[in-house]
């Protein structure tokens, strides 16, 4: 174990030195991680970002594009042959078809390299020719990122926290009854362990439908080739001080530690530790629609996720990121096109409030952060209508379930985010003043002019924050 730890540290040190040397003598590379919580639109974000960097007519907020300094953008083979390629062409085809549809969601890690030919600015503009900047885009499920919070927890701590959190959720009733009735000090029987893991996975799937965000362990929902393996066959149980050897409790404890060592740690070592920039996409509107409990859960989830970056708290991450760190992190509330533009500022303020505690606690080891409201692909148009003597600022789009055009008024987001976060923290069952509705819109048929990417909201500003300084 000691030799393995030393070897791992030496490997990371060599990789960091290699990255530094290659950045100094070869074309610079920006590694951008793209992740998001459930239903946040990662695939659409990546597809639209790539399309709009290749055809930059809708990217005035990206200064290098506005100045005309990006002379060309082209796709290249990705540097890592062991990672699946992000299926950009297929996803763009889904969005631009005669009857467009949303592409399949992220279920594994994928990667794509987009190279930009950039003309320098300032004093170097007249003496230096264009240079190539490689943008490596790494797409991965947000549930896997949440697993980072498990690294500093024991099985007993995780079990206690999880069972306490689930006590107030109707969707967890069946699993909680089974876990409480289990004699975890008895000898392990594999059928009992498998039944508990299946029941816990069923709860996680129900919780995702209910709008909750704390869906860990993440691989339970996206098991892939690990489905049915012992490393995914555990569940939280009431703590036992002196569980005997070969008991169900001791085996669950062992499998929890194996999950951290064999699933979580390799993912962060092989992917997360190599990122330069990160965007976290959040369906804040969906959580608001689900109610106060979903908003409070989202706030806690963001705090748990981001506090793991605090120096001195997470020994695993501190060792992993020696000599390297994520320099910028953008938190983006997606689906801004579901609101009239007059409410976008309020959605951004809510996103800032949701991450405020986490940023204050974590301080991100010096990373620069920002919150923003975006729509990767604009699926609606704005419309003002008169209804019952009131003037309502609406959005109009094609409904996902029926395909019919409809104007929709979601309700008025509060000017002060505390009007949402306050009731959420105090355990309110529902919003007292009004319900905040949300509709599912299908992508609108596109008719793009030459040089234009798909329509969006603030995708150019997001790109400027994430990569503008490197261009």
UniProtKB/TrEMBL annotation:
Top-rank lineage group of the source organism: Bacteria
InterPro entries referenced in this protein's UniProt entry, alphabetically: YcjX-like (IPR007413)
A Pfam family per the record: DUF463
Protein's UniProt name: YcjX-like protein
Organism: Puniceibacterium sediminis
Top-level taxonomy: Bacteria, Pseudomonadati, Pseudomonadota, Alphaproteobacteria, Rhodobacterales
């Amino acid at each position: 174990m000691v030799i393995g730890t030393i070897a791992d540290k030496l490997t990371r040190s060599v990789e960091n030195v290699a990255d530094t040397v290659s950045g100094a003598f070869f074309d610079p590379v920006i590694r951008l991680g793209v992740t998001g919580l459930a239903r946040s639109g990662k695939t659409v974000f990546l597809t639209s970002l790539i399309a709009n960097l290749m055809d930059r007519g809708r990217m005035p907020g990206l200064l290098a594009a506005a100045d005309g300094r990006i002379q060309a953008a082209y796709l290249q083979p990705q540097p890592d042959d062991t990672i699946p390629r992000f299926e950009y062409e297929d996803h763009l085809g889904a969005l631009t078809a005669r009857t467009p549809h949303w592409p399949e969601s992220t279920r594994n890690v994928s990667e794509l390299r987009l190279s930009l030919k950039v003309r320098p600015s300032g004093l170097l503009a007249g003496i230096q020719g264009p240079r190539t900047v490689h943008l490596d885009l790494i797409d991965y499920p947000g549930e896997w990122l949440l697993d980072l919070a498990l690294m500093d927890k024991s099985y007993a701590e995780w079990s206690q926290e999880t069972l306490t959190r689930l006590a107030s959720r109707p969707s967890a009733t069946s699993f909680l009854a089974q876990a409480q009735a289990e004699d975890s000090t008895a000898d392990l029987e594999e059928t009992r362990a498998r039944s508990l893991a299946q029941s816990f996975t069923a709860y996680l799937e129900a919780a995702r439908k209910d709008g909750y965000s704390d869906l860990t362990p993440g691989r339970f929902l996206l098991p892939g080739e690990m489905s049915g393996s012992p490393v995914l066959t555990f569940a939280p149980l009431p703590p036992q001080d002196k569980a005997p050897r070969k008991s169900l409790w001791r085996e669950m404890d062992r499998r929890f530690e194996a999950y951290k060592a064999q699933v979580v740690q390799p993912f962060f070592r092989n992917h997360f530790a190599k990122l330069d920039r990160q965007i976290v996409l959040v369906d804040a509107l969906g959580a608001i629609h689900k109610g106060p409990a979903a908003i409070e859960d989202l706030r806690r989830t963001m705090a748990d996720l981001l506090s793991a970056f605090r120096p001195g708290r997470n020994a695993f991450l501190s060792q992993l990121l020696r000599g390297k760190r994520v320099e910028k992190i953008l938190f983006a509330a997606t689906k801004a096109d579901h609101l009239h533009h007059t409410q976008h500022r309020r959605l951004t303020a809510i996103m800032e409030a949701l991450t405020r505690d986490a940023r204050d606690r974590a301080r991100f080891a010096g990373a620069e952060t920002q919150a923003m409201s975006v729509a990767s692909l604009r699926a609606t148009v704005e419309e003002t209508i008169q209804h019952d003597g009131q003037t309502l600022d609406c959005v109009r789009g094609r409904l996902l379930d029926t395909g019919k055009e409809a104007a929709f008024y979601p309700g008025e987001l509060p000017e002060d985010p505390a009007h949402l976060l306050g009731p959420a923290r105090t355990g309110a069952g529902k919003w007292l003043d009004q319900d905040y509705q949300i509709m599912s819109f299908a992508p609108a048929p596109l008719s793009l002019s030459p040089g234009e990417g798909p329509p969006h909201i603030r995708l150019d500003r997001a790109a400027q924050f994430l990569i503008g300084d490197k261009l």
